[in-house]
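__Record contents__

***
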Amino acid sequence: MRRGPDWQGLVFCLCVALAWEVAARQELLPPRLFPALTSVLAQLAEGTASGAFPRALAKTLACMGAGLLAAACMIPLGIWAGRSEQVWRTIGPSVEFLRSLPPALMALPAMLLLGIGDAPKIFAVFFAASFPILLCTMDGVRAIPPLFLDTARTLQVKPSVLLFEVILPAAAPGVFSGLKTALPMAFIVAMVSEMIGGADGIGHLLLRSQRSFDIPQMYAIILVVALTGGGIAQGLYLIESFSLRWYSGWKRVCGQRCD
């Protein structure tokens, strides 16, 4: 269960904001490179009101979402690999080889093959998100208590019932673990891909602000990215808490009997 507001974290953030404002006002750092927080917030409000920030962010999130939808195909593959050692022996060497490659690196050959546009960014997000989802799903399936599967076999349940009413619910914590790793990675890779070869999106807007030396706007975009990333993480935690509200109780009841 998630507790109430984290007041210590809120106080810490307020202290950081105050220190930022004081340091900028007292010119403890070069003011051209370190603008006051109030200036950054004014730029944030202006970019939001004009629609520039929301449009760029929506473009990035759209590419990120498309890549994650493609990566969702790794959930059934992870279930299959978790249930069959032969499947993992077949795909395991390729997975171990490919997941060592930096995801943003794959945007470069993708641009050569797919051209400039959304396709390379979607492919890079798909590449980045696939492996956490695949491996965590597979681990979640392998962690299913044998008691569940033995009981299903004893009751002679149909394969479809076994999959949707036993394996998927029991492996759901592993699937959410993969998603919690994949979502922030996908957001980062989408922005980096826009910096490498994009013509729009929040990453491209951030790079353009840095190159034009519009420092307040650059910091404002960084705040947008931070708030968006935090919002995505909190949203996923809420979905996980609602979907797995049975999990903590199940662990207490099952105990050592499920091992």
Remarks:
- The CA atoms of residues 78 and 134 lie 5 Å apart.
- Residues 52-244 form a domain with the MetI-like fold fold (CATH 1.10.3720.10).
